[in-house]
């Protein structure tokens, strides 16, 4: 039985995962087609759950209750190896903050132009204000972040599902016409979707914090409790996300998804912009509300995920600063430097407006795969404290999909 605190963490995991990745996943799957979507539906839970549980167990294996992933990595891999893992951890998470900064800026800009009918605002000023609001919020600390995310996640799930349900009157069967299974085409499409799928369901930045909390809260029962929290949150996120993706694929065509990719906007902003194209009388009633609600939901989704990912980025960057200063920097100063660094870099990248899906495919996806799939698996077979988690079939599954995700990114780059 899960208590109030467990539920708070469960929804925080959900809130961390459900952000820009989910809002861009329909675009990637929409271009790929029905067969890869079905394959993804089958694979999403085992890939997500097994990888995040392995990462959590890696952190839980340390006897010290306060040790996060950066400290545990140093314990196992030594000073140099720990620094490499910390750098990878930071490089996996920090670009996600940049993605959210770009996505939020584009969502608000699109909302001002298409829904409010004003001219596009000065991007330098717009990004300064939006990124400033995000960074100001995270500066209040972990407790505030977790509470804000848990408050936002309930209405967000409801609105996300209402939007998916509101599209049902516009569903058509075009997606099921002329289905031809091609091993080469469909397997390749699924393979190339893996970086975005891993990113869409990723909640690794908050896993370390969850592990530290369960160690303090439950002692020897921490593994059992954290496994239950992760599994429950994963079932919820995959059920809601896959229905969300399917609903959009049932009412939009490939050209729509390609347009969203070209304009670097989320699926909700796309639907808001083309809502007048839908003819169904029921949707006509919903449409005036949807065109305003959808972009705001996208903003909330990316905003709360920014908060969750900041916890992980802060862990990594603080540890890097600690090492570079030869352990002389204080936590208070480290926190201030992290906040300032995050603000400046996020603001400049949001202003530059790089392609979001390219960042996911080429940077975030493969580095996440190393942290989520490869590193915990290596540790399980390398270190005695983790060898009780040896399960050949599960471990082989994690390894294969980790390598496939990395190879998909390499293929996309070259």
Automatic annotation (TrEMBL):
GO biological process terms, alphabetically, are:
amino acid transmembrane transport
Under what name is this protein listed?
Serine/threonine protein kinase
Q: Which UniProt keywords apply?
A: Cell inner membrane, Cell membrane, Kinase, Membrane, Serine/threonine-protein kinase, Transferase, Transmembrane, Transmembrane helix, Transport
Query: Is-annotated flag, keyword Transmembrane helix?
Result: yes
Localisation per UniProt entry: Cell inner membrane
**Segments crossing the lipid bilayer:** 7-27, 33-55, 76-104, 124-141, 148-169, 189-213, 229-249, 289-312, 333-351, 363-381, 393-413
Q: Report the principal subcellular site.
A: membrane
| Membrane topology label | Multi-pass membrane protein
Which GO-annotated molecular functions does the record name?
Answer: protein serine/threonine kinase activity
Cellular component (GO) terms are: plasma membrane
């Amino acid at each position: 039985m899960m208590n109030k605190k467990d539920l708070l963490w469960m929804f925080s995991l959900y809130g961390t995962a459900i952000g820009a990745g989910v809002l861009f996943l329909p675009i990637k799957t929409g271009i790929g087609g029905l067969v890869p979507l079905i394959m993804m539906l089958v694979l999403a839970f085992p890939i997500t759950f097994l990888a995040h549980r392995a990462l959590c167990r890696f952190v839980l294996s340390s006897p010290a209750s306060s040790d996060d992933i950066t400290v545990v990595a140093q314990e196992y891999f030594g000073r140099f190896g720990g620094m490499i893992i910390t750098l990878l951890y930071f490089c996996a998470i920090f670009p996600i903050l940049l993605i959210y900064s770009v996505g939020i800026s584009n969502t608000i800009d699109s909302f001002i132009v298409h829904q409010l009918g004003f001219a596009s605002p000065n991007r330098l000023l717009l990004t300064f204000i939006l990124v400033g609001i995000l960074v100001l919020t995270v500066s209040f600390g972990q407790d505030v972040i977790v509470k804000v995310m848990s408050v936002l996640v309930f209405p967000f799930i409801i609105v996300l599902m209402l939007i998916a349900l509101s599209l049902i009157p516009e569903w058509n069967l075009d997606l099921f016409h002329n289905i031809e299974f091609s091993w080469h085409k469909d397997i390749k499409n699924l393979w190339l979707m893996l970086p975005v799928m891993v990113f869409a369901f990723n909640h690794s930045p908050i896993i370390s914090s969850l592990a530290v909390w369960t160690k303090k809260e439950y002692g020897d029962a921490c593994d059992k409790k954290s496994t239950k929290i992760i599994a429950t949150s994963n079932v919820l996120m995959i059920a809601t996300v896959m229905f969300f993706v399917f609903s959009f694929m049932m009412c939009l065509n490939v050209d729509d998804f390609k347009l969203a990719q070209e304009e670097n906007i989320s699926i909700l902003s796309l639907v808001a912009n083309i809502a007048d194209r839908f003819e169904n009388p029921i949707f006509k009633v919903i449409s005036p509300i949807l065109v305003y609600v959808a972009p705001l939901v996208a903003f909330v989704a990316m905003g709360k995920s920014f908060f969750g990912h900041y916890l992980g980025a802060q862990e990594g960057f603080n540890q890097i600063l600690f090492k570079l200063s030869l352990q002389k920097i204080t936590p208070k100063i480290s926190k201030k430097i992290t906040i300032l660094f995050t603000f400046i870099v996020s603001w400049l990248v949001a202003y530059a407006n790089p392609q979001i899906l390219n960042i996911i495919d080429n940077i975030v996806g493969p580095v996440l795969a190393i942290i989520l799939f490869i590193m915990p698996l290596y540790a399980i077979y390398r270190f005695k404290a983790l060898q009780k988690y040896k399960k050949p079939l599960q471990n082989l599954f994690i390894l294969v999909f980790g390598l496939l995700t990395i190879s998909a990114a390499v293929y996309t780059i070259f």
